[in-house]
Amino acid sequence: MDYEVELDDQPGRGQHEESLTVRYPDGRSETMRLHEYDRVYAIPGLYEEVVHNRLKCDSPRVLADTLVAACERAGDDPARLRAFDLGAGNGVMGEEVAGRGVKVVVGSDDSAPARDAAQRDRPGLYEEYLVGDVDDLDDLEGLVRERRLNTIICAASLGMGHITAESFERLWAPFPAGSWFAVTLADANAEPGGSDFGDYLARLRGGGDDTEILADEPFRHRLTMAGEPIGYRAVVARKGLPKLAR
Ligand SMILES: C[S@@+](CC[C@H](N)C(=O)[O-])C[C@H]1O[C@@H](n2cnc3c(N)ncnc32)[C@H](O)[C@@H]1O
Q: Is the residue at 244 inside a domain?
């Protein structure tokens, strides 16, 4: 790493407001918000240095552990899982589940620099990496069928102006019975009324769908730049067979 990073540690900033400054040895510097993903991923090592080393992000590890544990409890084999990594970034989450035997097949992100960073930092992790909002992807049914996908992983990419519940449900719809999804999202957003995804989870808990929540673990996602813990939930669910009408 040929740069220094300074975090804006003023208290009270929301996650989408947090910013950092990169200082180069020749005196140049650039300031960006952490959520300006195109800029962050374009600088090798910056995402891991800030999010993982400095802010101690635990979402990928906790989500991978929660998915594999739920899968094994249900008598399923993690090696059978073929994952679509939604909001994949530079592949940190994909790498974490791949390390536990899950096959990470497709990555997707609306940031082209995220795809470039995944190919730069983790070449060969994804068979295919799609750039664009998931709503703009054509023929999801064909993709799921041809790639034999049966799992969605989505770490820290729901809500906060990122991926909507509607987009997620649209992607999830063509996944076959027995498929898994594993997501992390902010505590407040996981509650009914807290966000569109919180409402979706409430619907699943109410049994109004063929998808059942099998794990819901609270954990510390990361620290804010001011050093405060950010609470998240790791939610794992599986699609069952359609319920028979009575
Ligand atoms: C906090 S990062 C998480 C990246 C990765 N999942 C990880 O755990 O390292 C959020 C990611 O969601 C992506 N994203 C945001 N909105 C999106 C959208 N509408 N469609 C696809 N990706 C999106 C961002 O570009 C970014 O890479």
A: no
